Amino acid sequence: MQLTGNPRPLRADAIHNREAVLETAYQSFAAEGLSVPIDEIARRAGVGAGTVYRHFPTKNALFGAVIDHRLKQIVTAGRNLLDDGDPGHALSEFIRAMALHWGARDLGLAQTIAGDGIDIYTLAPEAEARFMGLLGELLAAAKQSGTARADLTVREVKAIIVACQAAQIHTPDVADRVTTLILAGLRPSASGQNDETTATSDTPV
């Protein structure tokens, strides 16, 4: 009998079920809010309610896991841009993807959770740190390649993403152009006057 050591790894079918529950819950919460019953999420995912409760004993545990799971997907996609594409342009490509492709559903989920009084940072404490760490990597690559202003900070990049997402939510007909205009403002000026001061506040707060 094993008394110590790491927990037994999940079987392949258990991993598949967990992924199905997380993706179904993500889509359900984003579209309908957090009131969707766990039994209904189980039905949509094609698993028994007991399977959901086995992985996520409470609804708050499921909320936190959904957030953490989605942030992991976003971070992986961002790192793929750095590894597979042009590192100098990965930041702008990531912002555009967050604003015009991924952002609408993610923002809807975040607003739903906020409206229900759920503290995202308590439920998924590591998610924000991972996201800000990715932004730091993207920003560093952009600065090194000369495609981003030297005084641009990580917190400003996050604010830019939020602004671009808001444009997609509220004015989708001009969201693409708004995002393009904002991204143009991130580039160093020809004279270099807008990036003379290297920022010292890139550390996430």
Q: Your description of this structure?
A:
This protein is an all-alpha fold. The chain folds into two domains: 11-57, Homeodomain-like (Arc Repressor Mutant, subunit A, Orthogonal Bundle); 67-192, Tetracycline Repressor, domain 2, CATH 1.10.357.10. The protein contains nine helices and no strands. It has helices at residues 12-32, 38-45, 49-55, 59-84, 87-115, 120-123, 125-145, 154-170, 175-184. α2 (38-45) packs across α3 (49-55), α5 (87-115) packs across α9 and α8 (154-170) packs antiparallel against α9. It is elongated, with a radius of gyration of 20 Å. Mean pLDDT is 82; it is low at 1-5 and 195-201.
Structure summary:
This protein has 205 residues and is mainly α. Helix content is 70%, strand content 0%. It folds into two domains: 47 residues, Homeodomain-like (Arc Repressor Mutant, subunit A); 126 residues, Tetracycline Repressor, domain 2, CATH 1.10.357.
Please outline the helices and strands:
Layout: H1 12-32, H2 38-45, H3 49-55, H4 59-84, H5 87-115, H6 120-123, H7 125-145, H8 154-170, H9 175-184
Helix pairs in contact: 1-2, 1-4, 1-5, 2-3, 4-5, 4-7, 5-7, 5-8, 5-9, 7-8, 8-9
